[in-house]
Amino acid sequence: MNPVYSVSEVSIYLKNLFNRDAILSRIVVEGEVSNCKYHSTGHVYFTLKDSGGQLKCVMFASSRVKGLQFPMKEGDCVQVLGRISVFERDGVYQMYAERIVLAGLGVLFDRFEQLKKRLSAEGLFDKEHKKTIPPYPKRIGIVTARTGAALQDILNILHRRNPYVQPILAPAQVQGEGAAETIVRAIRRLQDADVDIIIVGRGGGSIEDLWAFNEEIVARAVYECPVPTISCVGHETDWTIIDYVSDLRAPTPSAAAELAVGIAEELTARMVDYHCALTGAMTEAIERRREALAHAERLLMMQKPTTRLARRRERMEAFEKQLHAAIRNRFERESKRLAVAAARLDGLSPLKKLGGGFGYISDPDGKPVVSITQRKPGDTVRIVLKDGELSAEVKSAVAFTGPEGRTE
Asked: Which of 129, 182, 226, 257 could serve as 157's disulfide partner, Cβ 3.0–4.6 Å?
């Protein structure tokens, strides 16, 4: 007896068969669009059909951002890249779209991807090859159509932000046969025009309109250009090969002009700030140097012979003053000591004693008589008084008696 399966089990089994199939997991299907509906969630539901059948399709909002670059509508013949699987709830198979292009553009997308992959492998997209956009350009080269809206957008932005910047146009054909060659020639002309930046781009359009900027010769001309280059092709969602090669990619031509130059008023204010800071720093440095010079001059003056002699003279004069002061002080001290000694000596002077009724006795030869044994009665002596001297004769000699009654 055959086993019995539920509807869900059959749906899951079929879904697994689809998912394991190598062809159905990533396939490109071409057909006419019908029943196209844009849901409020952002999803797009439609059917692909041809003379022999039809295929239900859905593109989710997450895939639509980059996968659908044009307003798809009923009757469009498109190529859809995606996978085919089973929608279990309805029990039907459908295609889950990742990218949708108009029929005939699939070849262009393949060429784009192949060239992008090859140039990337050669290193043309590497960051180390990117040149820095100068912050204060004076001359800006522009490669675009002479009559296109992109040129006017760029010129208006440049004039509004910085009217002192000089734009130089190298007109080029930006779409159609031979456009790539004119773009290359324009880039090379500007290389010799002494410009600081080159803006290369155009306004929006279909992939066919923008294709000149996907050509290899244009990509290599941008890569080999010694002048920093800003690419601005189409709208923000449009990417071309030169966007990967250029030094800076701008989403639109207007944005490229804004990235190329700063606002003049802001630059002026910044320069004023720089000038003030530089002036202050220079003034401070000059003051420091002036102080150092004055100090060096003072040191030099101190080392001059005349200065050293003057300093020695000043020290000698100071020493002389100190010496005179010391001598004067010493003289005063010694004078006081002499006065005291004189007073003491005066107190010990024999003349002082003579003035008190005492006399000085000597023999006729002037030898002092200090004992009665030196003279006997009848001898003469000289008696010196304070106002003169006397001559006398010794009548007698009597010795003094001591405290014990002895004659001494």
From this structure: 257
- By percentage, how much of the chain surpasses pLDDT 90? 44
Which residues, 6 or more positions from 237, have their beta carbon under 8 angstroms from its beta carbon? 65, 66, 69
Task: Give the other-Cβ count within 10 Å of 168's Cβ.
Answer: 14
The better pLDDT of the pair 405, 358 is held by: 358
| Predicted confidence (pLDDT) at residue 229 exceeds the cutoff of 50 | yes
Closest CA relative to residue 98, chosen from 145, 123, 65: 65
In a shared domain, residues 120 and 228: yes
Is 214 within a domain? Answer: yes
Q: Assess whether 303 and 281 both reside in one domain.
A: yes
Which pTM value belongs to this model?
0.50
Instruction: Transcribe 364-382 into DSSP letters.
Output: TTS-B--SGGG--TT-EEE
Residue 42 φ/ψ region, left for φ over 0, alpha for ψ in the -120 to 50 degree band, beta for the rest: left
10 Å CB burial of residue 43 (0-12, 13-18, 19+) is: middle
Question: CB neighbours (10 Å) of residue 292?
Answer: 10
| 330 inside domain | no
Distance between CA atoms of residues 6 and 11, nearest Å: 9
Cβ neighbours of residue 290 closer than 8 Å, sequence gap 6 or more:
none
Whether 308 has a pLDDT exceeding 50, the answer reads yes
The β-bridge partners of 251 are none
CA distance 400 to 403: 10
Using the predicted structure, report yes or no on whether residue 75 has a pLDDT greater than 90.
Answer: no
Residue 99 has pLDDT above 70, yes or no: yes
216-224 and 179-191 helices, crossing angle to 10°: 10
Closest CA to 57 of 223, 203, 320, 67: 67
User: Exposure pattern of 122-156 as b/e (b: 16+ CB <10 Å)?
Assistant: eebbeeeeeeeeeeebeebbbbbbeebebbebbee
Question: What sign for the dihedral angle of Cα 149, 151, 154, 156?
Answer: negative
Tokens for 256, please give them.
């490229």
Q: What angle do CA 377, 378, 381 make, to 5 degrees?
A: 95
Greatest mean pLDDT among 157-161, 197-201, 361-365: 197-201
